[in-house]
TrEMBL record, chain A:
<dbReference type="GO" id="GO:0000421">
    <property type="term" value="C:autophagosome membrane"/>
</dbReference>
<keyword id="KW-1017">Isopeptide bond</keyword>
<keyword id="KW-0813">Transport</keyword>
<dbReference type="GO" id="GO:0061723">
    <property type="term" value="P:glycophagy"/>
</dbReference>
<comment type="function">
    <text>Ubiquitin-like protein involved in cytoplasm to vacuole transport (Cvt), autophagy vesicles formation, mitophagy, and nucleophagy.</text>
</comment>
<dbReference type="GO" id="GO:0000422">
    <property type="term" value="P:autophagy of mitochondrion"/>
</dbReference>
<dbReference type="GO" id="GO:0097352">
    <property type="term" value="P:autophagosome maturation"/>
</dbReference>
<dbReference type="GO" id="GO:0034274">
    <property type="term" value="C:Atg12-Atg5-Atg16 complex"/>
</dbReference>
<keyword id="KW-0472">Membrane</keyword>
UniProtKB/TrEMBL annotation, chain B:
<dbReference type="InterPro" id="IPR007239">
    <property type="entry name" value="Atg5"/>
</dbReference>
<dbReference type="InterPro" id="IPR048939">
    <property type="entry name" value="ATG5_UblA"/>
</dbReference>
<dbReference type="Pfam" id="PF20637">
    <property type="entry name" value="ATG5_HBR"/>
</dbReference>
<keyword id="KW-0813">Transport</keyword>
<keyword id="KW-0072">Autophagy</keyword>
<dbReference type="GO" id="GO:0034045">
    <property type="term" value="C:phagophore assembly site membrane"/>
</dbReference>
<dbReference type="GO" id="GO:0061908">
    <property type="term" value="C:phagophore"/>
</dbReference>
<dbReference type="GO" id="GO:0005776">
    <property type="term" value="C:autophagosome"/>
</dbReference>
<feature type="domain" description="Autophagy protein ATG5 alpha-helical bundle region">
    <location>
        <begin position="118"/>
        <end position="173"/>
    </location>
</feature>
Amino acid sequence: MASSINAVEDQLSKTLESLQTEEKSSSLQEKIDEIISSYNEKENRKVNLRFKAIGRTPLLRKNVFAINASHRFDKVIRFLKKELGFKPDSSLLLYVNYCFAPAPDEIIGNLYDNFSVDGYLLIYYCVNVAFG
Amino acid sequence: MKQQRDSIPELVWNGNISVEIHQKENSLTYLANLPRHSYFAQILEDLKRLFAPKVALEECWLSSGKASIKWHWPVGVLYDLLSQEDPESATSVPVLWHLVFHVGSFPSSLVVPMGSMETFRTCFFNALKESDYVRNGSSSLVIALSKPETDTYWNSLLNHDFYDYRPIATKLFTSKSRIIPLKIYLGADAPIVQSSASLGYTLGQVLHKQLPRLFPSAVMYSLLKPVLHGIVLPSTVSTDIMNRDFCYPDGFLHIVLIPIST
């Protein structure tokens, strides 16, 4: 996790340096906006997801996928339903590391940075509530 | 005795924000003091009953200016983030936060619809499990809560009862763990940096380590400053104190960064 943040920061430092040399008079707010917008660009990386079925839930033919880190988690839910041939409004529950269900608007990159194991974000899925 | 009772966690718990909610072309107005620790999810049903009793809850949503409101984020986080108000500025006075209630044209790319209170309960406890996972490498402390404890915790949030809330929160957040979960909001339209920090550091050190370009110094703020519960936290505050006194009920420290006014 630390390494990916460092990578972001490296890119930011370059942006900031060019800002400082080009526009010495740029206001603090412009500087902040510039740094923040390079965060958004940085999220163009792809991260790996690994799916595991719980109980009698249908299996996937392939269970490893790469996805854009800037997407929200609901993208994963929609994607998995499609892969399994489920209707969009059907019930499907996804748990990170067999522990918690992220909110649909959490950012995949954040989940990956905090909870990935050996380079994969592990997502367990099932049709019925697996645990309380 | 008075001093003891007004402990910092209790003062933080009792922080609230006055809101005024109206609907376009409707003469009714909803006024309330919402605890910073509460959620808009807790009043959405009341608002629906007042403004649009016949529609489904899933079609109802709130906005503040151009921003749509996430019902599953704490009210205090949303206010600090969307108002970008500097608590240290001399002009800041008690405010009435104006919000608008909407039905239909649901901004589904921005907000998740709320089906019922059960949707919110599931969402809240999953956020709590997520923060527990950061602290302990599993959600075992939340799962180990007994049914009465879980219900007490949930009801303490709904009833805003500090004395029911605090013992369970202490049990969950001040365990043997040395790691605390952070969500750092870079701005209203900017990304959230979700991360973790160890106990035994100062906030300045944590911000400098996580975001060295935005926080070039570990001692002093130069571009942005961190706001938590409407308070600008000094760079010298320790992560131990933040964890003990400043966690939101979902177990996270939600830190909003606001520009330093010049």
